[in-house]
Amino acid sequence: MTIGLLATAIYAADMPAQGFGLHIGYAQPTYRLNDANESLAKDSLVNRTQLHGFKIGASYDASIIKGFGSTIGINYVFGAARTEWKTSSQTIGQYPMYRSQLYYHALEVFVDWQYKFEVAQETYLMLYTGPKIQCGLSYKKKAQQDYFDNITAYPEGDNDLFDDNEPNEDLQRLNVTWGIGAGFQYQRYFIRGGYDFGLINPYKNRQFTAADGTLMDRNTRGRLDSWEIKIGAYLWYNK
């Protein structure tokens, strides 16, 4: 798939350019859990927690035939979330409560094939679909405890859920999605919104020790989905 994306980008670069633009918008990445046995999934992954954040990036449009073309680009993705307070046997004190704060950073490359319907002069409706390849930079989990109404961080500090050196963290850095979306363009300005479906399992296969001391495999399965809405403008646009 990576080779196909690169080939599309090279092919698109040889076509008459429509424009180069910048965009920014809201994003909501969500790690979903599909494993039938949820007890085998580690709680620290905060499964199904929705991350609220933004995307900022650049894109390059190229036409193939009138109305039909492709867009290639790159995004920086940020997301954050905070879990509800929970009790834990690991906390010490009269109020054994804890929660996690999550901070997600990633880069993604995307290719969209799109069709624009001209509904008025320099005014278009568009439909698009295509893949994204995403590389996670970090996914930090900062644990907090509430001890006599005094919120403090745990001594172990931040954990990166992508870190291969952390034996208990289970997320792959690489992720591939396929998205569908729609948008509106007026002259140099546009708005786009869509949903991306995860195509690969973002969880690593890990081993854990059962209560009886038996070493077992934890084959957690799921996907990373995301939806977005962004606004942008072409810095250079050739009709």
Report on this structure:
There is one protein chain. With 239 residues, this protein is mainly β. The protein has one domain: Porin. 5% of the residues lie in helices and 65% in strands. It has one helix and twelve strands. The strands form two sheets. Strands 1-2-3-5-6-8-9-12 form an eight-stranded antiparallel β-barrel. It has a two-stranded antiparallel ribbon with strand order 10-11. Strand 5 and strand 6 form a beta hairpin. The longest helix is centred in the N-terminal third of the chain and has 12 residues. The chain is elongated and about 70 Å long. The two termini are 31 Å apart.
Topology:
Layout: H1 2-13, E1 17-33, E2 52-65, E3 68-82, E4 86-87, E5 97-120, E6 123-147, E7 150-160, E8 174-186, E9 189-198, E10 206-209, E11 215-218, E12 222-237
Antiparallel strand pairs: 1-2, 1-12, 2-3, 3-5, 4-5, 5-6, 6-7, 6-8, 8-9, 9-12, 10-11
